[in-house]
Known about the structure:
CATH superfamily of chain C: P-loop containing nucleotide triphosphate hydrolases
CATH class of chain C: Alpha Beta
Distance between the termini of chain C: 40 Å
Oligomer: heterotrimer
Helix content of chain A: over 70%
Strand content of chain A: under 5%
Number of domains of chain C: 1
Order of helices and strands of chain C: EEEHEHEHHHEHEHEEHH
Strand order of the largest sheet of chain C: 5-6-7-3-8-9
Amino acid sequence: MLRKIMKYEWTATARVLLPVYAILMLITLIGRIESAAGVFHSKDKLASILSQISFSVYVLLIMAAGFITLIYLLIRFYKSMFTDEGYLTFTLPVKPATLLNGKVLVAFCWMILDMVLVCLSIFILAVSPKTFAELQKGMLEISGELAKVGLSISELVIWVVIFVIVGAFSCILAITASLSLGQLSNKHKIAMSVVSYIGMSILTQVVSTYILSMSSFNSFLENIEKTGFSLPAFHQFMYFSLFVSILFTVMYYLITYFIISKKLNLE
Amino acid sequence: MTWNLSADRPIYSQIIERVQMDIVSGVYHPGDKLPSVRELATLASVNPNTMQKAFSELERSGLVHTQRTSGRFITEDTVMISQLKETLAEEQIITFFQTMKKLGFDKKEAAELITKLSAEKGEK
Amino acid sequence: MNPILECRDLHKRYGLKEALCGINLQIEAGHITGLLGPNGSGKTTLIKMANNLLTPSSGEILINGKKPGTESKQIVSYLPERTYLASWMKVHDIIRYFTDFYKDFDPTCAYEMLRNLQIDPDDKLKTMSKGTREKVQLILVMSRHAMLYILDEPIAGVDPAARDYILKTILSNYNENAAILISTHLISDIESILDHVIFLQNGTVKLQATVDEIRENEGRSVDSLFREVFRC
Lengths: 267, 124, 232
């Protein structure tokens, strides 16, 4: 059942999001060609203006891609669960958990895809044999510095990946939880969703700050100047942050699950 | 077959009357095979249980009989059919007399009126 | 044999308001029942509960002996009063969707009914008129071999000719092992296909009888009785 839900969720979302990414990659390629043609380094006034415009458009597009993805997934979740379409979704012989999991997993895939494609796009545009060599040199330098404090690039990369994954789920589930809370209201569903989102964000901030303050992170930061970078403190901070992130992600999931199982308010 | 069913009487009684009329008037011939209850219900746009009730009653009265594997048939008992014809005709006449009474004619006057009209219109 | 739908002292409260106050009813297989009542009588609440879209405040509602849930959804085919299909989908897509999720869905049946009503399965829902969309929804619901069909206003938005077709479709899909529950305001149109009716008012069952009983005892149609009972 989960696979079926994901299949239809994918088909429904791909028809809107794939064109967006196609456009992104197209612009990337155009940019690459322009770059290869030396457009960006030309001293010609026209070319210079063109390159500036292209650059601005490109930056906007990258931001738009991420923004559109998030907004679209939000709208899709709301529409398919809490508007008239909800009558179809919730009368399927499928457990509410399966519905939620399917939609969240597909949303997660899109967010990761978005990030990957944006990075790829930047990479394609920015990297040439010359910059590649510089990049390699820079990496070796960083590696050296990190090794001095006991870290490696690969470890950092792993931390980044973990936080990106948890962050993506957290972001998605915070939205689903807000929308679920919002639909409880009869007349002001959207307003309530926004209020819920803000409320939960504030709550998250407060609680995580409190928890992190217990992780001696402050002293960790203060003491970097005096005693230098402390690896155990760094790890402790990382674990605490991860714990807080996961905690809230799970909380958002449970809120959403509880509401869609027991407190559905379709009109 | 358009069924003009009135809304204030049970449908099954109306179906029974209609079928009786059709048998007597020759729309259905003795021994004719009837469509299934479901088909008839869909044709007449009535509830199948209602149609079934009507036919159970018709079967009870003997106008219709079921043969195990072949389905439902109109009776071949022509004597029964003529008796039914008479009964239905009598009912019409009784109703006629009742209506005439409301209009102020007693039975004798009503009968005279019939004779008069029959002669006038050269009725068969 | 369990009744297909059963309510035992069913209550539903929204804050201080009581939408359903102690509903007791049973619907058996092989019957076509009309759920009749004015707006706000609790019909929609009852229907939503049968589909597990709402949970009872107290009391029970049972579908074939079990509480509404994932299992009951497999045997209940529900036609809501609104357009609940995704408008960007083509009819073909929706049929595939239903085939995928409902074991008892019969695509051949669906395509035949679409043909009879001259609806092109390649059309997208959003290009169709409201009446056509409603016909499509009804076709999908009736193409399932379910145990309980719940139809909320199946003929309201449809022209009289299509109404006849819809009523005949409901009748031809009738089978003695299933129950059909129709909630409607258009009583006179639908009265002849009903055998039972339930009058609901202010969250209570005011009357539960067969159509024949009403016509014999009251000497009038259900529609006429309804108008009297629910006179404004």
